[in-house]
Amino acid sequence: MSKVIVHIDLNAFFARAEEIKDPTLENKPVAIGHDGRSGIVSTCSYEARKYGVHSGMPMFKAKELCKNLIIKPVDFRFYGALSREFMNFVRTYTPKVEVASVDECYADFTATIKGKANPRKFFEDFQLGLLKETKLKCSIGIAPTRFLAKMASDMKKPLGITIIHKKDAINMLSPLPIEDFFGIGKKTSPRLRNIGIETIGDLYNKVKNNDDKLKMIMGKFFYVIPDMVEGKSSDELDLEPWDPKSIGNSTTLFEDTDDYSEIKETLSRLSKEVSERCQRENKIGSTIQIVVKDPEFKVRNKSTKLTNPTNDYKVIFDTACKLFEKNYSGMVVRLVGVTLQNLIDPRDMVVQMSFFDYEMHEEQSATKLLINELNRKLDKPLLMRASEAKRKKDGNN
User: What percentage of the chain carries pLDDT values higher than 70?
Assistant: First the structure.
């Protein structure tokens, strides 16, 4: 029996997040990114897309196309909070969730959907429930494989629901332009058009005919195309372990940079996200690692072991900064990441603590987690523990 694999893709996520913060932006052309000659459009609202604005476009070009374009800077912290709400909502339906990016995931709904008389109505209710609870809009693709589910979610946007049954896969995919084939990039599609491949159907037929020119272009990918189009490719999800040994976040910078102030700001945001995730999972870690990728895509890792395990944001951030300053100062950076490793449950340290120390640690952790959650919902660091307020006051004296 085929699985029910679902791909859920948030519609114009960053732009929608700004609309949630400021409802007056709804139905207006909005672009997210840096303004100025070097700025790039990260994403944009559907209203902006009507003018020809799209992701990856230079911001000055977007402003030429849309004179009344509203430009908003990226707010990663808020987007991260909304992303977590989205993933948590999906997990109320199934524990089998693979996070693909900040605004999309795959989920195995095989057990959830079993016995449902009207699957489409079920997913319409899911879509509406997500909108009511988080104000986020999504498109949903339902299919027996990962590839088909992803293809299905792209077919109708925004707020689309597309179901691809295995028997219908070839007929549904064949008319689509070759650029719509997930996995074929902007550099490859012109080469395919040069040998007469305009649609996915053309691609499929040439593979079945063992076309040598196509084989030279596609390489090993050539041999898996039939299974993908016929609904015979992978239906396995890469699930996060229930008891992770490390928690980390990384991000590709909008532009390659050696500006340490910008890199430090990114390290701060990543450290905050790692800290909050560890606190929600009730985990502390004894090793902090940073990962850096240069413009040539070479990856470099550095880590250090802590004296005491922690999930404290300040400790993670300060350590990450020291690792960067020591090893990569002045380097041009494309991607940066922060990971807390060798995670354990704080209760596993009870043998090394007195009972009083352990109870106090538990109470402080619970209080800190509550404060963090309240601050996240307020989107401002308004609340802190009395001990932290005293330290801050003493530090200012």
Answer: 86
